């Protein structure tokens, strides 16, 4: 049996109920909420929703939840999430080889880098970097 995970189909204001009804037509039970519709589904069902939803913006996987009242708490919370359950070992090393500089520059200017100028994904989760020991 496939594992059921929590997903959110994001939607523009006012379309949350429409997205929940679209999911129901696909055989997926969902609850409309501010910003989209929340549902539990297998990866296959979520990918089918991603293909066939007409009013949703994106289909996002809920990887975890935590409270963060500061950037440091946010950073540590993101770092502690079980990324290895969804991203294979060494994936960050491969991704860094193809990232675009303009996006990094925009992130730096908008304050989404930590104090040292690196993004949380830049090798900060050693268990995801090839040869990482974390």
What do these coordinates show?
This protein is of the alpha+beta class. The protein has two domains: 5-61, Alpha-Beta Plaits (2-Layer Sandwich), CATH 3.30.70; 71-128, no CATH class. Helix content is 34%, strand content 17%. It has five helices and four strands, in the order βαββαβααα. The protein has helices at residues 16-25, 43-52, 71-80, 91-96, 101-109; strands spanning 5-11, 30-33, 36-41, 56-61. A four-stranded antiparallel sheet has the order 2-3-1-4, with helices on one face. The longest helix is centred in the N-terminal third of the chain and has 10 residues, at 16-25. Residues 95-110 have low confidence and may be disordered.
């Amino acid at each position: 049996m496939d594992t059921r995970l929590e997903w959110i189909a994001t939607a523009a204001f006012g379309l949350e109920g429409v997205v929940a009804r679209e999911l129901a037509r696909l055989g997926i039970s969902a609850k409309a909420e501010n910003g989209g519709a929340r549902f539990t589904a297998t990866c296959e069902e979520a990918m089918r929703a991603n293909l066939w939803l007409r009013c949703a913006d994106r289909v996002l996987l809920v990887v975890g939840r935590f409270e963060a009242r500061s950037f440091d708490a946010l950073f540590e919370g993101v770092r502690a999430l079980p990324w290895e359950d969804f991203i294979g070992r060494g994936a960050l090393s491969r991704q860094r080889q193809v990232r675009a500089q303009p996006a990094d520059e925009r992130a730096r200017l908008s304050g989404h880098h930590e104090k040292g100028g690196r993004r949380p994904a830049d090798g900060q989760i050693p268990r995801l970097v090839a040869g990482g020991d974390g």
